Amino acid sequence: MEFNFLGRAFKGDKVIWCIFIALCIISLLEVFSATSTIAYRQQSHWAPILRHSAFLLIGFAVVMFLQRVPTRFFSVLLLGLPISAILLIVTMFMGEDVNGAQRWLGIGAFTIQPSEFAKISMIGFIAFFLSKMKPENESWIFKTLIIGIIIICALIAPENLSTACLLFGVCILMLWIGQVQFKRLFKVAVAGIAIAGFLILSLTLLPENVVKDYFPGRLTTWKNRIERHSGDQEVSIYDKNEDGSIAYKVNDDNYQVSHAKIAIANGGIIGLPGSGTERDFLPQAYSDFIFAIILEEMGLLGGLFVLLLYIALMIRCGVLASKCEKKFPRYLILGAGLILTIQALANMAVAVNLIPVTGQPLPLVSRGGTSTIITCAYFGIILACSSKFNDADHEDVDESIANIDFEMPEKED
After folding, report:
1. 269-325 tens-digit pLDDT
2. Of 105, 217, 173, the residue nearest 340 (C-alpha)
3. pTM value?
4. Furthest CA-CA distance within the chain
């Protein structure tokens, strides 16, 4: 009786459910530990974790709701794309400045991050059009997809370049998986590399005062991050002691990366559960650098476990997608799995200093509001697409926009 109840309550793939619950538990433990600086400022030991728990509960409710939604209704994500574009434009002019970037839009007492809505809307947009693509309409569908991708990524890039690059990469991967002709993707890749090369050369060769006056401020920030990561400023972080030995110097430029390395070194193999110290020094210990705190408190073994959870998520999404008879849910599963996994790998790579600091949170684990709820929505979509509850429902889509057959009208002679 109890198992029947659980089976009715928790639809969809059980492996995905296990990964989701495991990440939620890790999130609660690590955010509780990593928010010590916030607790100190607010003079409340429980306030930060209660806030995070509230968002996780909202996210859990979102998952419970979405897992029962017939997948044809996810085509409504198409409407989210123009709405997200409008919100991104409004954020450019009226957004709240946090850490030098206007990524949040205040609505009453709440703040939202429009780029998160844009990401999930873009996944639905691409999945929908890929599911309708045929040899006779591939050309104009491809152009429609590329225009949509460029517009959204261009709106995100000025204040959140790393998110724009991540989303662009995931979109191109989805197009490749959707069997878009390679020559079309190659042209887009060449154009993207050319634009990136032009920006890098401009930032490198032009005088610094010109860059500051005529380029978006975030590009200057990225230039400094790349230079620091590539070692161009490496000499300045070492001092000589009186005895002639070399000492590592922590300064403003390498502060986050240095303390992340210290956290990883402190953790060793099995970690220091609840006894980490770097959470008091890392400015974004509960967000961008939470994986460093995981390595400090859970050790190398705990860090590998978290990494394997995301790898297992992507592998399982691939298995589930291969079992989908309908293209739309198949591409939804793959898109959601790709964006969660790649974002997680980016966050981990920053924590271990493999790539420059990007500001990407660890999906479902990092403290957040909009990002936590939207991440839960990805899981809800994956579960809905994998649910037997939807199997029969997929066959009847007469009342849905997902049943529209896109074909170019024949030209009259």
Report:
1. 888 887 778 888 888 788 888 999 999 999 999 999 999 999 999 999 999 999 888
2. 173
3. 0.85
4. 89
